[in-house]
What we know:
The protein has about 120 residues and is an all-beta fold. Helix content is about 0%, strand content about 50%.
Amino acid sequence: xxxxxxxxxxxxxxxxxxxxxxxxxxxxxxxxxxxxxxxxxxxxxxxxxxxxxxxxxxxxxxxxxxxxxxxxxxxxxxxxxxxxxxxxxxxxxxxxxxxxxxxxxxxxxxxxxxxxxxxxxx
Length: 122
């Protein structure tokens, strides 16, 4: 079992920045891929970014490339998502999730946090 707790969401103006945090606990997180996914009102959940804990390879959705950065802190078992140049269309609930193996750029993660709301005003 892996427990994930997100924090760091909020209200920001377009062009602003936020840093989302995900605290991971439970089974050895180094064996997992940790992803950030989001779901906007009335839309399906979508992949945003992922990091393979062992080795640190990162993956991004096209909408995130160049604006968002995923990173991890091994010592603290934390995963971060830095959101820059935010747009109103980035408004969504952002979830931290974990899985073992399989394609990182997927919504089929096994463990999920409760989500954190990001609202971008125009």
